[in-house]
Amino acid sequence: PNVKLVTSDNEEFVVDFRIAKMSVTVSRLMEAMNMSETDDASLLSNSIPLPNVTKAVMARVIEWCEKHKNDEPKEEKENDKRGRTTHVVSDWDKEFLKNDEFGRLCQLMGAANYLEIKGLFNDISQTIANMIHGKKSDEIAEMFNIHCDLTEAEKKEIRKKTAWCED
Amino acid sequence: FIRPCFDLPMDLLALPESFLLKLMRIMARKDRNRLRQTSRNFEKLVAESDAGHFDYCKITYYDFPREKSSEPVLIIHIDEETFSEIEITNDGLKRFLEFSSRIFKTISMNEVRLELADYIFPLDFLRQFLSKFDVELLSFVTYSDIQLEKSRSIIVNFPKSKYSLRTYFHPEYERILSLPPMEDLKILSAHPENLPMTSESFLK
């Protein structure tokens, strides 16, 4: 069975029921609209409005979901519950995200957050953490267009105070 | 309509709070430290966020003379990372507390392992530093009654944690019985010819 999803720019995407269920937000909406896998009429007569996602971003989300639709559901580890994940971005996911500049990653991340697709959200978070990893502070500032409002004297003082922990 | 690239959000701080807090939890300590040096807003975000969950933190005391300094030091390991030696002087400990308060507000650990020493051990510092920690298991290695007593005084600060203790001397039974229930208790002799006493010895 298929489910119709409508984006903010009025584009309709018809996706497999399994893909629609990968989003907690869509699942909840389907439940609220009494749409079920066994009731074709309910699926045909309804569409799910997604006002916070554009066509371009939705296409990317669906591409990711297509790849992951047969993944085994991951058991939540104790560490995950407490916040820190040992999330490993798979080779396919790295490839999928590698050409996205930061702005596009943010849009995709915003959609993953809104649609509650945890795996995609974790992939993007880890990708951004990896982008920061090992960079110097001025490189991080340049990469993310961060306007540095610290004075040279303050920066020098911070570096002095934290030099020993950079060993 | 596809938004052009220049119209895309490029400000890391403009991202949803849930994302920023998640990012803070998965970043390495050095990366957090460098991010906080990029602007006042990031300095605040890093200082006021949770550093996430780690497997273990090990705190060891060293007092043998070294090239750099003759002061006794604490060495703190968090997972694979090792902090530089923290001199056990008022200035050294104050500097470290200031630093740690700038890179995280809270942190959680599967296990904190402490190897205490008989003398000049900065218990107040340790209590202050560990007050930011949510600890699942607090483990102690002790070699004397003094160290065992210090362990007991730290345990009081972590009523919700589990504990384990390994001693390399034979403490008095009364002292052992005054300890809270342990996940694991091993009483080993510093002399290899003596057999280890285990928690079972107290259950007979």
Which structural class should the secondary elements of chain B be placed in?
A: alpha/beta
Q: Distance between termini of chain A?
A: 58 Å
Integer count of domains of chain B: 2
Computed CA radius of gyration of chain A, to the nearest angstrom: 20 Å
Biggest sheet, spatial arrangement of strands of chain A: 2-1-3
Overall spatial form of chain A: elongated
Helix content of chain A: 55-70%
Whole-angstrom Rg of chain B? 21 Å
Helix-strand pattern of chain B, N to C? Answer: HHHEEEEHEHEHEHEE
Number of domains of chain A: 1
Strand percentage of chain B = 25-35%
Oligomer: heterodimer
Helical segment count of chain A: 10
Report the biggest beta sheet of chain A as strand number plus sense, adding barrel if it closes.
3 strands, mixed
Please tell me the overall pLDDT of chain A.
Answer: 83
Order of H and E elements of chain A: EEHHHEHHHHHHH
Low-confidence stretches of chain A: none
Protein architecture, described:
The complex is a heterodimer of chains A (167) and B (204). Chain A is mainly alpha-helical and 167 residues long. Chain A has a single domain, classed as Potassium Channel Kv1.1, Chain A (2-Layer Sandwich), CATH 3.30.710. Chain A has a three-stranded mixed beta sheet with strand order 2-1-3. Chain A has helices at residues 17-21, 24-32, 40-45, 55-68, 78-82, 91-97, 102-115, 118-132, 137-143, 152-162, and strands spanning 2-7, 12-16, 47-50. In chain A, a hairpin with a 4-residue loop joins strand 1 (2-7) and strand 2. The relative contact order of chain A is 0.11. Chain B is of the alpha/beta class. Chain B has helices spanning 17-26, 29-36, 40-47, 90-103, 123-130, 145-155, 173-177; strands at residues 50-62, 73-78, 81-82, 86-87, 106-115, 133-142, 162-167, 184-187, 197-198. In chain B, strands 1, 2, 3, 4, 5, 6, 7, 8 and 9 form a nine-stranded mixed beta sheet that branches. The longest helix of chain B is centred in the middle third of the chain and has 14 residues, at 90-103. Chain B starts with 16 loop residues before the first helix and ends in a 6-residue tail after the last strand. The model of chain B is unreliable at 1-8 and 192-198 (pLDDT under 50). Chains A and B meet through helix 7, helix 8, helix 9 and helix 10 of A and helix 1, helix 2, helix 3, strand 1 and helix 4 of B. Chain A: Residues 2-70 form the SKP1 component POZ domain. Chain A: This is Skp1-related protein. Chain A: Residues 118-165 form the SKP1 component dimerisation domain. Chain A: It comes from Pristionchus mayeri.
